[in-house]
Amino acid sequence: MESPRAILEVEGLKKYFAIKTGVFSRISGYVKAVDGINLRIFPGETYGLVGESGCGKSTAGMTILKMLQPTGGSVMFKGKDVLAMGKEELRNLRKEMQIIFQDPYSSLNPRMTIGEAIGEALEVHGIAKGKLRRERVESILKECGLDTYHYRRYPHEFSGGQRQRVGIARALVLEPNFIVADEPISALDVSIQSQIINLLENLQEKFGLTFLFISHDLSVVKHIANRVGVMYLGRIVEDAPKKEFYSSPLHPYSQALLSAVPSMNPEVQKKRIILRGDVPSPSNPPSGCPFHTRCHKAVAICPKKVPAFKKVGPDHYASCHLVEEVI
Ligand code: SF4
Fold first, then answer.
1. DSSP readout, 122-191?
2. CB atoms within 10 A of CB 214
3. Hey, which of 55, 63, 151, 267 would disulfide with 115, CB 3.0 to 4.6 Å?
């Protein structure tokens, strides 16, 4: 039987930001925010991209959507090369690939009603205007747990949870297949977070959506994702199916992150692995394995040689000198 085709295939994706200094703004270095990541996402799946803040997750999401111009690598969406697309093709692609931001308020115009903000894209893409546009917006508002009377309201009249529902409605109104959800619940009150997660799951099932779910919260990712990728200093250091990742993480960084997640089972006593220091600057990453300055398992070779990203199980990958490659 033929294996299903990935909806999104990312290979060697890089995004470097130039550091300019002096009166002549000479380039004195680069911040390697995303430094050669690979990932594949299958239709209807949720891929959880995790890591500490500043590890490059959000930059990766925006570069995949070509909201940021990549420095190198490739992004294939439904077999088409996103990075080679011209303006018109990209405009059409926006109907299929959308983003939900952490803080929808900052991306909403305070002088536009919610109906106008959500409906704008329908008009820009020539999909619907007038009465039809209004009907489409009202219908998506209802799908996202809002009321039709919200159409005439302004962003400041909404609570944080409602604003995120508006952000989701705006992403969904063009009926996309693929959504980058960038820390969609981390700005919300804990009591609201599960409502938004349930909404995303229901919408995924109803509309067959595929998610790249970016989060620093491993408990949330455990709940929502099918597959997990762990980022550190612009690179994916481990990539595995969810079950395998949570039961037997192989990279020391994943092990440290997971050791900090509280267990719901009081009988499970976990030994907390404390990460030393802060994430080093991506403009001057450590030599060899970039994690060696904080790693609790580092050995002599670690600062000298970059570990390869190895296949360590049937569908499990990690980059660490201590893990065995499987053929
Ligand atoms: Fe730690 Fe060395 Fe493995 Fe890097 S390669 S994660 S420093 S043990």
1. HHHTTS--HHHHHHHHHHHHHHTT--GGGGG--GGGS-HHHHHHHHHHHHHTT--SEEEEESTTTTS-HH
2. 27
3. 151
Can you tell me which atom of ligand 1 is nearest the CA of 297? Answer: 8
Q: What is the pLDDT of residues 84-141, one digit of tens each?
A: 999 999 999 999 999 999 887 787 889 999 999 999 999 988 999 899 999 999 999 9
Report the first-to-last Cα separation within the chain, whole angstroms: 22
Decide if pLDDT at 265 tops 80.
no
> Which residue CA neighbors atom 6 of ligand 1 most closely?
320
Q: What is the pLDDT of residues 304-316, one digit of tens each?
A: 999 999 999 999 9
Residue 198 C-alpha to ligand 1 middle, in angstroms? Answer: 37
CATH superfamily of 8-96+176-318: P-loop containing nucleotide triphosphate hydrolases (3.40.50.300)
132-171 pLDDT per residue, tens: 999 999 999 999 999 999 999 999 999 999 999 999 999 9
Residue position matching structure tokens 């904080």: 294
Atom of ligand 1 nearest to the CA of 323: 3
Q: Whose CA is nearest to atom 7 of ligand 1?
A: 292
For the chain, domain boundaries: 8-96+176-318
Residue pair 165/146 in contact (Cβ under 8 Å)? The answer is yes
Residue with the bigger pLDDT between 102 and 50: it is 50
3-class DSSP assignment, residue 240:
strand
Banded pLDDT at 318 (limits 50, 70, 90): very high
Choose the residue to mutate in 253, 294, 301, 302 for probing ligand 1, maximizing ligand atoms within 8 Å of C-beta: 302
* Residue ranges lining ligand 1, Cβ < 6 Å: 251-252, 289, 291-292, 295, 297-299, 302, 307, 320-322
pLDDT for residue 2: 55
Assign 74 to helix, strand or coil: strand
